[in-house]
Amino acid sequence: MPLVRFLLRPAIIPAWVAALLALLLVFFPASALEASIRGLSIWWEVLFPALFPFFVISELLLGFGIVHFFGTLLDPLMRPLFRFPGSGSFVFAMGYASGYPVGARLTAQLWEQRLITRAEGERLVAITTTSDPIFLIGAVSVGFFHNAALAPLLAAAHYGGAFIIGLLMRFHDRKAPDSPKAVSAYAGGAKRSILRQAITAMHRARLMDGRTLGTLLQDAVQAALRLMIVVGGLVVFFSVIMELLTNVGIIEALSGLLRFVMGAIGMPDTLANAVISGIFEVTLGAKGAGASTGSGLVHQAAIAAFILSWGGLSVHAQVVSLLSRTDLRYRPFFIARLSHAILAIFLVYLLWNMLGPVS
Q1: Residue 45 and residue 175: Cα distance in Å, rounded?
Q2: Could you tell me if residue 22 is inside a domain?
């Protein structure tokens, strides 16, 4: 019994999981290779060209002091709404424009520069980990559903849900202190305009950075490449995991259980496979939701909104990797993603008569 208790300790379980995956690789090498190539193709053809420019530009903007500019300018707006400093507005804009996991990367950078506290960072990364509009409109609405009229509904449910989560997250860790820079950014210079203070903050940040344009550009490209390698590795890894779990029947077993649950709550059980795929990887899940044509468009849209807002464990792993050098915790992020996903479903049903496509 002591040996059994030792082998089942939480610290030992990851080792057993890793050993099981290694064993599955031995039994299904061809499937694992095909899944790896598939994941690598997604990374090279979709993620690399979509994310790499944003990573480079964000590094440059940080070096130029643009974050400090927006931090000072928008601090009076961001703090009452979301309880993080104005520098979070930069992450807000870049995260929503470029999609996951850019928000996590920029949040980690702000934490490293001591512009945000742990609580503020956890709030910020929870609400800026969203799909980018190009993926939501082009890939999901047009590519998977073949219905561009669905885009306004999905956008309202996804981004509207993120905004609501942001308002709720302001109550997260309520006793945590505000970041000093956010408080002092405009309080010390009340006689000067907020715009002038923002420009001064940007200038000081640029002087403190001190790197030449050539050095800054080189560092930005190198940092972006390192990050893209991590993202690519995680995409390939989860692609292989999905394939191995499918080969041994675990995915089908999970789908069967979910079909029973969905049938009990009145949702079409034909969407169970899409949900299971989306729990692991957002692209596969959204594609599965669009392909389940006999389930009813409103239910398909609700599941697609759920998957987009959840993000998939692949994105979760990317976020955890990006935050590994900070003291930001995964649990608040997980709760926010799950809450966002459930809220997105309700928003789709609530807004269907107003924004849903006309039959």
Answers
A1: 45
A2: no
